[in-house]
Design goal:
Strand content of chain A: 5-15%
Shape of chain B: globular
Number of helices of chain B: 11
Strand order of the largest sheet of chain A: 1-2
Strand content of chain B: 15-25%
Oligomer: heterodimer
Strand order of the largest sheet of chain B: 5-6-4-14-15-16-13-17
CATH class of chain A: Mainly Alpha
Helix content of chain A: 25-40%
Number of helices of chain A: 4
Amino acid sequence: MDENKVIICRCEDVTLAEIRNLIKQGFTTVEEIKRLVRSGMGPCQGKTCGLLIAREIAEITNTSIEKIEIQNMRPPYGGVTFEEVIAGDTIEE
Amino acid sequence: MKNRASVVVIGGGVVGNSIAYNLAKRGVEDVVLVERSFLASGATGRCGAGVRQQWGTRQNCLLARESMKVFENFKDTLNVNVDIELKQKGYLLLAYSNNELEQFKKNIKVQNSLGIPSKLVTPQEAKYIVPDLNTDKLIGGAFCPTDGHANPFKVTYGYSKAAENLGVEINKFTEVNEIKTEKGKIIGVQTNKGFIETSKVVDAAGGWSQQIAKMVNAELPVYSERHEILVTEPIKPVLDPMLMSFSYNIYCQQTPDGSFIMGYGPDNEPPSFDMHSSWQFLETMSKKAVWLLPPLNKLRIIRQWAGLYNMSPDKQPIVSKIKEVENFYVACGFSGHGFMIAPAIGVLMADIITESDLTYNVVLDIERYKRGEIISEPSVV
């Protein structure tokens, strides 16, 4: 398996090699990795990559996966258009 | 972790890291930085990522211009291989009243005198710069082509890397529990990972700087206030500059990765350490954004979050030593514009700590409030 060809975050095209490289540099939290390579910042908001990255951190740092925090879940739960949010309501300035 | 330091910097945001780097660059050895969480986990990493030089006071223009020079030459200046995703496609400030336009004219004079290439634009020119802009009620604007965007995480990471290269020890996930003093002098910092003996402490704790100061019984004239923000899915580049209006109260930009990031200043937000998101923000923000840039309508919002503005009485930074405790220094009260001037703030704080003449002719000391020298900056959101 070529870790350069394995995509961990498909929204932001982040490879397994990039993730492992950051963990080895000492970025051993999902939140830090997110901020450096944008994993989990795309439309799925880390619902796919979050656990995969946590597992990599657990393996490389020899920690049990239960102790690895996944990223903060932030609203909205799924993508929502501006149009849907304002539902016909507009601003009067 | 070292158990002795010449200076302990509290706070791993962009300001703390810039200070640590600048101290080491001056030859100060054994600088230790401590951060409760990860780097840029507070206000730095939650900000709107804008870098602008269009300010109303001479000293803010100066700090912003000098900081922009660092952003423009980041790798060479800091000698680190970190791409900070600088995008210099300008800031377009929108005027909706004659008063606002007159203020822009005054500001531009100050800016131009310092070599900042800002200029007044007509609504037609604004529309040319941003074709999707709704120019309804717009009477003019100000545009500076060298303003723009930089990635706050990368800038912070770059400073920390550069600081480490010069011997600074950066300790993440290290929380300060107590600052020990003896006869009014600092003797050390107690963290959850051990005690660091030191005589000098820099409080660069952003939204929590007033709490750190309380550890030495100092009251800082600052409080923290929640500001919210949201980001959309990425699309192809369609918006060059950061759009900003003080009266309509909005900022909105498209970052180099293609997503739109935007926010506004809240009304009557009480002082707090609350960093939760609200549906009210989502709704108001959406209405404001779609009115200004109608094609946004179809775009998806994918995330919202909040961060803390550390507000000072004149909404200007405090970069200073304090009277109450010897060798306790504060860099706080950035009031929402710390990121873009952090490079210059690091230089200033290094001047203060090493007792050198200030590199920039500015007044940011805490005693200014007692002297009544309030800085009145007209251009803040």
